Amino acid sequence: MFHRYKTPLVAACIAIFSVFLSACGQQATDKKPEAKSELPAADSTSSLNSPLSLNIVTPVASCENLLTFDLTKVGGEGSKITSASEQTVNGKTTCVVEGTMAPTVGFKVTLPKASWTQRFMQLGCGGLCGMINMNIGAADGCKAVESDGFALASTDMGHKGMGGSFGQNPQKRIDFAYRGVHITALASKALIKEYYGQPAKYAYFNGCSDGGREALVEAQRYPDDFDGIIAGAPAMNFSVQNSFFHGWQARSNTGADGNAILHAADMPILYNAAVAACDEQDGLKDGIISQPFQCDFDPQVTLCKEGDSENCLTQGKIDAAKKLYDGPKDPSTGKALTLGGPQPGSELSWVGVYVPRAGSEQIFSTMIADGATKNLIYQQNPPANYTLDDFQFTENNFNNIRPLNGLYSGTNPDINAFRERGGKLIIWHGLQDPHISPVNTVTYYEAAKKASSGGKDVSDFMQLYLFPGMYHCDGGTGPHDFDLLTPMMAWVEQGIKPEAIIASHDGTAGNQHAGPPRKDDEQKAPAIMGSPDGKAATVVDVDYVKRSWPVYPYPTVAAYTGEGDWRVAANYKPVSGPSMPSYDWAGNRFFKPDSQLNCSVIEGSFRCEKAAH
Questions:
Q1: Rounded to whole angstroms, how far apart are CA atoms 584 and 529?
Q2: Which residues form the signal peptide (predicted)?
Q3: Residue 83 CB: number of other CB atoms within 10 A?
Q4: Of 500, 520, 553, whose CA–CA distance to 43 is shortest?
Q5: Which residue among 48, 292, 333, 466 sits deepest, i.e. has the most Cβ atoms within 10 Å of its Cβ?
Q6: Structural domain boundaries of the chain?
């Protein structure tokens, strides 16, 4: 069966329950409405429209004959199919094709033999990629995919392995930044046409984390590749994210003795205090902070009083927590060097990312920042003896990463070409994401809105969904299971704009992931929370609630009506939500139309120029 990001990569879902019931004249209640013993099997508020019923098309060529298919027109000399054979996938006969686009972009395409409904979906990867991810992520639950109606494809983005050493090779940088995902789309479409005798009628892209960055890059750089794009928790500020953000998180939780200051056991204390401070802002006491941007939480309230030692924190731990929330600032100018930090209510998901489970166990932030700062973000890489301790959190050093930022970034707000050709874009993010602050995503949405229509309505082609209580691409204390592909298909194929997305939580801890990819396992996408070996972090004991929730396009939020079971999506209504506060930071210019670079390697020389817009 298909996998989401659940035991894996970057995933997605959750329920949005930002409310602001006070605006509706309702008072927050400290008593939860009486819950029914059983939840309804279906929810009448669901907006999942049925996709078009397309004819099944069967192959006109044998799978084995694809071995000789010429890819050089797409990827250049040396591009080739390395294997093509019929295999049983999800219980059905499938033509599985693997190949390499010159010089080293690996890819995989799966072509159903007897159930193809003329649709194609490419899947993004996570972290620094380096592996093939065939997990369907935010398409989990989509019947058209689960019945093998789609041809699927993915790429390793030009290198093998999770580390950043590939950045020593300029061409591999380019392939990872944007070329790999594009030429994989071209190669996949060519193979589909060869195998079935006709092109795919509809093409979709679906990715989260770096896959979300890839999704935006496709809309920005290659507007003709896909009809519908789903971009989850996009790592669009790649250079900043993997240096100033993760580097700061790693350093801020390291004491003078080299050991971690905060540990997993401290997280419930912070989490419970944050929830106590801000849970009821939305009018419902349900254990979820649905409006974290408006949450004024001071971790100082957790300070141990004289004689106390349990369920409280020392001043040293509180100071470290404040640094993690606030992010780095230039010590001389006070200028913020990142765009937002982890939001209140995300604390349980810090485990394995920048807080070790125990002792001085390696954390994700150290691993990703070390690889990026040594190999990827600078025009000239640091010396071999460089360590993360040498990284300077200053505006001067921020200026050092500017020259190559446009190589990797997905922050270009000019996506008018994608809009004009009829493309549809769904962007989504978990509000309690420990890896990538949702502030980045809202900032991009507002910038794209301004660039596309002068700040006016863009819902004809772009929608943003924010999921309270959700971690990075999957997991969380709030509802985080949902299907975005079905409403995307209805939008692309029938012109039915998506509104409420119904997210759910099964009431169990499930797979709370947040670390790097699992090594050598392409069937299990990278875990997003956990240790650097990809194992899930120890799940902290919290009360998970079985529930469903309607998530509306930003800035609309869901408000409990005050009647019926609060755990059921049908008992919520849309209300106007609060807007996100504005942020001034060193990278404001990154969200401009001229922010991207086109790079090439000519006679061994790495050259970049401003991309046309």
A1: 29
A2: 1-23
A3: 12
A4: 500
A5: 466
A6: 1-48+214-219+238-613
Instruction: Decide: 13 and 480 in contact? Cβ < 8 Å.
Output: yes
Share of the chain above pLDDT 90, in %: 80
Contact 149, 57 (CB under 8 A): no
Q: What is the mean pLDDT of residues 342-352?
A: 97
68 burial via Cβ count (<10 Å: 0-12, 13-18, 19+): exposed
Question: pLDDT category, 484, cuts 50, 70, 90?
Answer: very high
Per-residue pLDDT tens over the stretch 39-64: 443 343 344 567 788 999 999 999 99
d(CA 176, CA 373): 16
DSSP-assigned letters across all residues of 458-496: -TTTEEEEEETTB-SSS-BSS--B--SHHHHHHHHHH--
List residues bridging with 107 in a β-sheet. 99, 155
Q: Which residues of 132-161 are buried (b: 16+ CB within 10 A; e: fewer)?
A: bbbbbbbbbbbebbbebbbbbbbbbbbbee
CA 593 from centroid of its chain's CA atoms = 22
Q: Does residue 456 surpass a pLDDT of 60?
A: yes
Which of the four pLDDT bands, split at 50, 70 and 90, describes residue 510? Answer: low
Amino acid at 302: T
Q: What is the rounded distance in angstroms from the CA atom of residue 185 to the CA atom of residue 187?
A: 6
| Spatial distance between the Cα atoms of 404 and 385, rounded to a whole number of angstroms | 22
Structural Rg of the chain based on CA atoms: 23
**CA 475 to CA 140: how far, in whole Å?**
14
Q: How confident is the model at residue 529 (pLDDT cuts 50, 70, 90)?
A: very low
Nearest-10 crossing angle of helices 210-221, 180-196: 80
Of 411, 549, 349, 542, residue with least CA distance to 467: 549
Tell me how many degrees the CA angle 391-392-393 measures, rounded to the nearest 5: 120
Residue 451, SS3 per DSSP: helix
Residue type at 416?
N
Cβ neighbours of residue 544 closer than 8 Å, sequence gap 6 or more = 477, 505, 507, 508, 509, 510
- Model confidence, pTM: 0.90
C-alpha–C-alpha distance, residues 440 and 473, integer Å: 15
Q: Is the pLDDT of residue 298 over 80?
A: yes
Angle at 118 between CA 117 and CA 119, to 5 degrees: 95
Torsion of CA 174, 175, 181, 182, to 10 degrees: 70
For the chain, give percent helix, strand, coil, nearest 5: 30, 20, 50
Identify which of 88-92, 481-485, 609-613 has the greatest average pLDDT: 481-485
- List beta partners, residue 462: 425
Cross-strand partners of 430: 467
Query: What is the average pLDDT score of the chain?
Result: 88
Residue 107 · residue 99 · CB < 8 Å = yes
pLDDT at residue 512, rounded to an integer? 52
What is the reported pLDDT for 509? 77
What single string gives the DSSP state of each residue in 64-126?
Answer: GGGGG---HHHH-TT-EEEEEEEEEETTEEEEEEEEEETTTEEEEEEEESS---SEEEEE---
The β-bridge partners of 575 are 557
- The structure tokens listed for 566 are 């609060």
Query: Which residues, in sequence order, are CB contacts of 251 under 8 Å at separation 6+?
Result: 388, 389, 391, 393
